[in-house]
Amino acid sequence: MLSCPLPPTPGEVKAPFIALCYQQDKKVALHYSRQFGEYLRLAGIRHVIASPYHPQTNGKIERYHRTIKGEIKLIPYEMPSELTEAIKAFIEYYNYRRYHEGLGDVTPYNIYTGRHLKILQSRKEAKDRTLQTRRGYNRVVWEQDSGLWLLMLE
């Protein structure tokens, strides 16, 4: 049997609304309001519903769960509050300090704030300067080596 709360009337909704329905002890997202759909459209978010019992469909969040579990399970926690604090600390690290290869080796916070373009540009400039310095050094070394070979041939 499927039991769902009635969706709120338009005057009641202050934030996007999703009705979670329960079917045989499983949560099922059955209904979302027009307001939620409009919010997603304005935010440029595409609503994708994953297939039930198919974690590959939710690859990104499943990978995140595997990452956080790998970190959190390293230490046995005696109190739930310790576990909560460890999860909060990991989320802070994951979002603000950890570089993500899939994002171009910047943090999600850098992407969110728009700083990633400036960071990537400064990295490119540093790389170009480094390569130019190396080319100059290699040219000097090559010229010195060439001069030595010419002296040895005489």
Shape: elongated
How are strands sequenced across the largest beta sheet? Answer: 1-2-3
Query: Whole-number average pLDDT?
Result: 77
Bin the strand percentage: 5-15%
Total E-strand runs? 3
Task: Please state the oligomeric state of the protein chains shown.
Answer: single chain
> What is the H/E string?
EEEHHHHH
Report the radius of gyration as a whole number of Å. Answer: 27 Å
* Helix content class: 55-70%
Describe this protein's structure.
The protein has a domain at 1-49. By secondary structure, it is mainly alpha-helical. It is elongated and about 75 Å long. It contains 5 helices and 3 strands; from the N terminus they run βββααααα. Helix content is 55%, strand content 10%. It has helices at 34-43, 59-72, 80-96, 108-113, 116-153; strands at residues 2-3, 18-23, 26-32. Mean pLDDT is 77; it is low at 1-25.
Short description:
Helices cover 55% and strands 10% of the residues. The chain is mainly alpha-helical and 154 residues long. Strands 1-2-3 form a 3-stranded antiparallel sheet.
Annotate the secondary structure layout:
Elements: E1 2-3, E2 18-23, E3 26-32, H1 34-43, H2 59-72, H3 80-96, H4 108-113, H5 116-153
Antiparallel strand pairs: 1-2, 2-3
What key phrases describe this protein's structure?
154 residues; mainly alpha; three-stranded antiparallel β-sheet; 5 helices; 3 strands
